[in-house]
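Morning, I've got a small favour to ask if you have a moment. You're getting the sequence in one-letter code plus the fold written as tokens. Thanks so much in advance, here it is:

===
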Amino acid sequence: MSLAVSRSWSLLDFILIWLGGLVGTGIFFAAGVAFADENWTIVLSVAGQYIGNLGVFWMLTRYKPIGEIGLAIFPRDLVYIVAGLGLQIALAIVLLPLSELLFPEGRPQQEVADMIANADTMLLRVVLVAAAVVLGPVTEELMYRGILLKALERWGKVLALLLSSLVFAAAHLTGLDLDDFWRSAAVFLPPLFVLGLILARLTQKTGRLGPAIFLHSGWNLLSAFVLLLPVDVLEQVG
């Protein structure tokens, strides 16, 4: 085995993949502004992020051991979709008093949820939901549990568990409204951190990404499919 292939995944690899998503978002956003309307520009931006992430990941697999990541999925992993749904509901109930205290006028939405809710055609909503339920979990589990968690474990499993979960949660705060950033962060950070802890521990326990991918997908599934409801129905519910 050559020296290049035997090198483990590192923090630098995680940063490169993250930067790939940032560059991909910028390129596809610019293309959308030039050639598409506002709604499809959003879709292109989301697609650009995942293409950038996965593109850099694919290039790195030419020099890194893919087996080290634990990208193995079995049919029995599907049960974790239900676990993700249940976890989303349970944490929403537990943290409801905090949310109502900080936002008596109504809980704010995260960036992806806001994009889905404001998409003016069902096709756009379906595309964005597919990204949230399929592409998002696969890409993020490769990054945060497949690479970041493994890279941090050389300093201890507990430290890796905590730091990878904190980075995961913090990365999801970038789309919050700057005018209410700290209030919104206080609402979104705790459940995302808990989710990150559970996904990381599940990956450590099983040695695979399959369970974490499906649990993550189940977590996104509830809010994503609620937003597929017609706008007038959502307004009545709200």
